[in-house]
Specification:
Helix 1 runs parallel beside helix 2. Helix content is 41%, strand content 13%. It is globular and about 55 Å long. A five-stranded parallel β-sheet has the order 1-2-3-4-5, with helices on one face. A three-stranded antiparallel β-sheet has the order 6-7-8. It is built from eleven helices and eight strands.
Length: 340
């Protein structure tokens, strides 16, 4: 349990670290408030945001933050607290329509969590805050998700759809209910195309320069912190004590050791020079997939996920995703042309 003193220490350390980041010349700063459940600490988040917004304004640094929540705590009291907080968007997670979602996300009083979360989303939209509905996809709920998309489309005012309401999909991984990568990609394609037709996704086709997939592959200034100030390379490993790479106080004083075993694992063992025998770096799809998530590479290496590099399954996955994006983009363009 946190003490007031430890909470104060974390706040001071975080602000000190941000001061160092600003001093190093950064012009953009973004924080993601992530679970547990950040709405349980909303007052602390707001206090921190107020201090960060003030400092970034003084230094002419663009600041934004993202709130990743289960949405249960969004109500008439909490939603107004998110205004004027430089919120980029709020991500709320759903597992299906009402009968599916409520079985998975239940309360002691068996409250209808689906409707409560959805009402919270409507409150956010009324405040003109951007919302991304994150839809988990697995073996048990995949057949229900088309109905969820229709429900969202039918129960949100048109003025919000495609402007400040969007959907996103995520494969449930590391579970016996996880879809294989290939089956997930097939399901994703169908759901993505339907979401585009409903205006819930704005498709694009982009090829980027080769760069780190995420901050897990860098030793730069990006940090993943828990409430005690411990640092991790990936937020999937939060509170796994063996996965810590140091403390924020070390980062402030530049004493964060790069010899830490977890650092070494991500930089070398899981690097694209070593994973898949280095073939990714010469693959024509590398600028589309980035070599896939470093944590996914770790799961494959430890036999907790299927090896998508065998028989070039990874290439098929990327091709399928690219076909999905191109098809959806062309359909959207055709629809716009047809209706002027």
């Amino acid at each position: 349990m946190k003490s007031e003193e430890s909470d104060k220490d974390l706040k001071n350390n975080l602000l000190c670290y941000i001061e160092n980041v600003i001093g190093a010349g950064t012009k953009e700063l973004e924080l993601v408030w992530y679970g547990g459940e950040p709405l349980l600490e909303l007052q602390r988040i707001n206090d921190l945001n107020k201090a960060i917004i003030s400092r970034c304004s003084e230094a002419d640094v663009k600041y934004s933050n993202i709130l990743v929540t289960n949405g249960y705590g969004l109500d008439e009291e909490t939603v107004p607290m998110l205004e004027n907080q430089n919120i980029k968007y709020v991500q709320v997670t759903f597992d299906g329509t009402e009968h599916v979602h409520n079985k998975r996300r239940t309360t002691v009083t068996c409250e209808n969590t689906f409707l409560k979360q959805f009402e919270g989303i409507l409150l956010l939209l009324d405040k003109d805050l951007e919302v991304v509905i994150r839809i988990n996809v697995d073996k048990e709920n995949v057949q229900d998700l088309s109905n969820l998309l229709k429900y969202i489309s039918e129960n949100v005012e048109n003025k919000h759809i495609g402007r400040n309401l969007f959907v996103d999909f995520g494969r449930v991984f590391g579970s016996e209910n996880s879809l294989s990568f290939e089956k997930y990609e097939s399901a994703y394609s169908s759901l993505f195309l339907e979401a585009v037709e409903l205006g819930l996704i704005c498709p694009s086709v982009a090829i980027t320069d080769l760069k780190a997939f995420c901050s897990a592959e860098t030793d730069g200034m990006n940090l993943v912190l828990d409430h005690a100030g411990n640092i991790y390379k990936c937020w999937n490993e939060l509170y796994h004590t063996e996965a810590t790479v140091g403390h924020i106080s070390d980062a402030i004083s530049s004493n964060l050791s790069k010899d830490n075993a977890v650092f070494q694992q991500y930089f070398y063992t899981l690097s694209l020079e070593n994973v898949n025998k280095g073939k990714c770096l010469n693959c024509v799809y590398i600028k589309l997939c980035g070599g896939f998530c470093p944590y996914t590479r770790k799961m494959i290496l430890t036999d907790r996920e299927e090896n998508i590099y065998e028989n070039d399954l990874c290439k098929q996955l990327v091709r399928t995703r690219l076909e999905t994006y191109i098809t959806s983009y062309l359909r959207m363009y055709a629809n716009k042309s047809a209706f002027g």
